[in-house]
Amino acid sequence: MRATIVGGGVIGVSWAGLMAAYGIDVVISDPAPGIEDVVHAGLAELIPSLADLGLPTAALADRITFEPDLARAVAGTDVIQENGPERLDLKHQIWSTIEAHAPAHALFLTSTSGIPATDIATALQSPERLVVGHPFNPPHLIPLVEVVPGRQTAPEAVAAAVDFYRSLGKKPIVLAKEVPGFVANRLQAAIFRECVHLVAEGVVTEQQLDEVVTSSLGQRWAVSGPFLSFHLGGGPGGLPHFLEHLGPGLQKRWGQLGTPDLDAATNALLSEQAANFGGTIAELAEARDKAQIALM
Ligand code: NAD
């Protein structure tokens, strides 16, 4: 099998490493000068994590080649995962070139985190082929891929996308509707708004807030999501009892949540406290990846 990774930035490298670890021949197409060095540096960082996951990494880098000319990069490919810049005009340009040169059977997948497939597909003669396959960073580790069809996406394209992501050990979830930010990032935005409020109000520091999450909600939600957790929280009566008993209090709290602005003063406060995490970003990321793999 052959896959073309369009855009070899943060997300493209991660997808490329994962696909190559699953034995797929990967072609990376990215016009940036020096992209080969950037990708190889990125691969060197993620290969230990792939090995920790039990994936074979010995010949991984040999399976990844580069072809800056997009038309040539997609000729003869089976899957295209596009990870170009988050700009509609560029996505249009990229996808019309892909459509003109890719084989008729190739899967059309875009990693976009916010542009609906419906909008990208206006550049296509066959809009039914395009599906959003939105990973949660970093795609080589985090299982979720939100599969989001556009208004014209064919059910067969959705099914093929799901099969493909499952074959990479991912957890694809198909959304029934296009919604800004999809699901995981909407949840993240909702929770982060309250995190910012609590830190900006001086209730807790960033480090304390993170500990509250990692020692409570994070652990709980790693095994049972918000709905199952509250279903179990209702005892024998399940979620109906929970909603009757604790629902009014929960609804009252919705009215007490903060609505902070990310203005200059708030950003300065958040940035100042982030320095207290200590270590370099690379050290913190390495520790995070090791803990993530241990959890998985
Ligand atoms: P990035 O800036 O790290 O990488 C984008 C890459 O695209 C760059 O290497 C750039 O040289 C390349 N590029 C520019 N023009 C191109 C062209 N015409 N053809 C091919 N490549 C081109 O960005 P990223 O964070 O990897 O994001 C890529 C996509 O993935 C975006 O659509 C983004 O919304 C989505 N996404 C990002 C994250 C994240 O956390 N970073 C998570 C999920 C999805």
Report what the structure shows.
With 296 residues, the chain is α/β, with parallel strands linked by helices. The chain folds into two domains: 2-174, Rossmann fold (3-Layer(aba) Sandwich), CATH 3.40.50.720; 184-295, N-(1-d-carboxylethyl)-l-norvaline Dehydrogenase, domain 2 (Orthogonal Bundle). It is 51% helix and 12% strand. Strand 6 and strand 7 form a beta hairpin. It binds nicotinamide-adenine-dinucleotide.
What is the strand and helix layout of this fold?
Layout: E1 2-6, H1 10-21, E2 25-29, H2 35-52, E3 64-66, H3 70-74, E4 79-82, H4 88-101, E5 107-110, H5 117-120, E6 130-135, E7 144-149, H6 155-167, E8 171-174, H7 184-200, H8 206-223, H9 226-233, H10 238-254, H11 264-274, H12 281-295
Parallel strand pairs: 1-2, 1-4, 2-3, 4-5, 5-6, 7-8
Antiparallel strand pairs: 6-7
Bound molecules: nicotinamide-adenine-dinucleotide.
Residues 6-12, 29-32, 83-86, 90, 94, 111-113, 134-135, 137 line the site of nicotinamide-adenine-dinucleotide.
